[in-house]
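Technical note accompanying the year-one report. For the benefit of new consortium partners, we illustrate the data format agreed upon in the data management plan: each record pairs a sequence with a structure-token string. No post-processing was applied to the example shown here.
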Amino acid sequence: MTVNTLPFFACLAISAMLYYAAPRKYRWMVLLGVSLLFYHWMGVDNFLYVLITTATLVVSTRRMQALDEKAAAKLRENPEGLTREEKKQIKSQTKAQKRLWLVCGVLLTNLGILLVLKYGNFFIGNVNRIFEYAGLNTINRLGLAAPLGISYYTLQSIGYALEVYKGKTAPEKNPFKVLLFVTYYPQMTQGPIGRYPDLAPQLFEGQEFRYENLTMGCQRILWGMFKKVVIADHMKPLVTTIFGAYETASGFTLFMGCVYMALQIYADFSGYTDIVLGASRIYGIRMSENFERPYFAKSLSDFWRRWHMSLSSWFRDYVFYPVSISHGAVKLSKTGKKIFSARLRKLFPVILALAVVWFCTGFWHDASWRYIFWGIGNGGVIALGLILQPQFDWMKKKLHIREDAWWWQGFSMLRTFLVVALLKVFPGADSTMQSLAIVRQMMFHFSPALTREALFPGMRLYELAYIAFGLLLLLAVSLLECKTTIYEWLARRPLVLRWGIYLCLIAAIIAFGAFNSKMAGGFEYAQF
């Protein structure tokens, strides 16, 4: 049961009524019950892993808090009798013990489960290739399947543990509330990755019913459904057809396939996010935004600040910053004084952190070399931009290019979009070798043509009309949201006009949407 099906909306409606009918202090129990039921309905056989994640979070975070309290008590007992060195030693020992609980109780357990279940066969497959080359016996592959949403709830859980470790938040003592934080059903399959200080209080406190939350939630669900069934689900067969014929398709058609995939993935993933944020808003819960008009970005780093923001900010806060200020990174910046300029040496920690982050980001998406290459490609472009920034600034100054000129901003957006689209060659292909074959086709057999078969192979005219209509409406809404959100804009319209827009949107979804027996297709990011 995905979030764009009739059973999900029925579940949402019934659970929302039960939620507001229950006493406020028990409303979190309704959310926990429906989350566990939803997880069961999704056909999950490995619920044990979710319980292990919850148990390790409860035990390790409470132990870290106990260590902090014990250290504080020691310091309070004899504040004047302790030397500065003794106080420093108490704090150092406490930090070391907390780190042990963090690593053993959370990282090794929860991250270990993710690595074994999602990436175990990837490691075994690569080891087997080496063994085969050396003439040795191969290792049997694992027969275990990764639980649904494990990539998302693992990162969310680790983020919570790190916040407790840093002393930024107090741990929750009720294990069932921690279980709700881990399994909150709207975000279970594709995020957004919630931060404990922002999400947990809203889940546990119980929200009051407000008509505004109901209307805003329904509006957002409608808009998400439109993006999913009118744009994404109509574009997916086009993308599949192009990449499926990579051996015979021209490089130009394959390039257009990358462009279509960039648009399709955005409509699909942002449509999912709209549905999830709308569903949460009906409960009065405001989850973090995951997109901010990413195709209006003027650089690749700007794009990743706007796309899948919960994941990008997670890697920024918990991987990029710690790596960039680590002892090894700082030491690296002091090397090569006779070879590299001071500016380049200062960039060494940043480039090292970018390399780690983008390797992890690619690997997080999928246990395959093509996604690792996709991650390295993104990180490489961003790092190259940082290294060459003085040359770019010099060139713009010589050519008298103003940053705020409309044509330069438009060029920057187009350039960024094309880089993002071209990198889709890796996730668009079925294998690493296939992606390399597609790159070779685009480089040596581009052969541009403006025929329908070259531009839109296998597509009917009415399907193209639906896609064009959907993309134009998406562009119009995105332009409007440069000044205000579409939901705030709608709130200021007269009642008759608002309902006219709602009814037209519902009619467009029914008339133009690509539906199947399950109401609509699954979401792309659910595989991650």
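Partners are asked to follow this layout when depositing records. The mean pLDDT is 90.
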